[in-house]
Amino acid sequence: MTVHTSWRRRATLSTVALACCASALAGLPAGASAAPSTSPAGSAAAATFTDDFNGPAGSAVDGSKWQTETGDNVNNHERQYYTSGNKNAALDGQGNLVITARKENPGNYQCWYGKCEYTSSRLNTSGKFTQTYGHVEARMKVPKGQGMWPAFWMLGADIGSVGWPNSGELDVMENVGFEPGTVHGTLHGPGYSGSGGIGAGYTLPGGEAFSDKFHTFAVDWSPNKVTWSVDGNVYQTRTPADLGGNKWVFDKPFFLILNLAVGGYWPGDPDGNTSFPQQLVVDYVHVNTND
User: Where are the alpha helices (H) located in the chain, listed in sequence order?
Assistant: First the structure.
């Protein structure tokens, strides 16, 4: 699918004065899963961000670590309305964060296409945690179904002043429902955003689906280098040499984002075979310094 580079993921932030945005990744450069290799191991890494999502069932995420975005997203033509509090993002009491997408609209929310059909959640650490370089990792179980779009990603903390894509975007993991066994990792920046993003996909062997069980998604990020892995298997490394002379914008602080979108240009809308509610279950998010 061809994607115009202005198509971006956007939601109104209720607590910060910026609109976070990211590209729709349809039309990613083709990237079959590479032969698995061992992920870089750090022997002297220090934890800088840790959330194991421990707490009573039904409680909201730790507000000292995360903020909840609210609103819809016209740029990608996503169908959900991101709600506040613990309505669509809550701890399950078993050490997990559960982001739930529902086919409902109890608050009579209005979206770009009229009355919203779905609700979900999007969380970020803007203003609370940023980091330059390190090992960024989340263990998650993704949903399954046409139109579902879970993501774990990062944006440059200067997005409010320089805008997107000059801020840079680092997608640790994105999955679309019509590719149940494949995830994508991508860089976006000036001259390589939208359909021109630099990345690849990783496909599970034997027809497995990422919704079948938990998997660990990570990047190892250092000056002029980002390496992606799934369950410790490295599948791509990117450096400034991959950008065709465009500017590398990944040597500054970035913040984290977790969200579950419904519909949009890349995944397409849910269909009659898509059941609701759908859940993105997050066991943990850990960020360490590199050794």
Answer: 159-162
Contacts (Cβ under 8 Å, ≥6 apart) of 56: 91, 93
Q: Reduced to 3 states, what is the DSSP secondary structure of residue 89? A: strand
Q: ∠ CA(73), CA(74), CA(80), 5° rounding?
A: 40
What would the two tokens of residue 165 be?
């894509």
Token pair for 259: 């969200």
Nearest Cα neighbor of 2 from 231, 266, 277 is: 266
Neighbours of 161 (CB within 10 A): 10
What is the pairing mode between strands 89-91 and 80-82?
Answer: unpaired
Place of tokens 């679309």: 176
Whether the pLDDT of residue 42 is over 60: the answer is no
Where do the H-state alpha helices sit in 149-240? 159-162
Q: How many residues does the chain have?
A: 291
Q: Is 289 exposed, middle or buried (0-12, 13-18, 19+ CB in 10 A)?
A: middle
- Of the candidates 127, 117, 124, the one whose C-alpha atom is nearest the C-alpha of residue 70 is 124
Closest CA to 146 of 19, 268, 257, 246: 268
Active site (catalytic) residues: 169, 174
- CB burial of residue 158 (10 Å; 0-12, 13-18, 19+): middle
Q: What is the pLDDT of residues 62-90, one digit of tens each?
A: 999 999 999 999 989 999 999 999 999 99
Q: Give CA–CA dist 208/216, Å, rounded.
A: 15
Predicted TM-score (pTM) of the model is: 0.88
| Angle value at C-alpha 110, between 26 and 188, nearest 5 degrees | 25
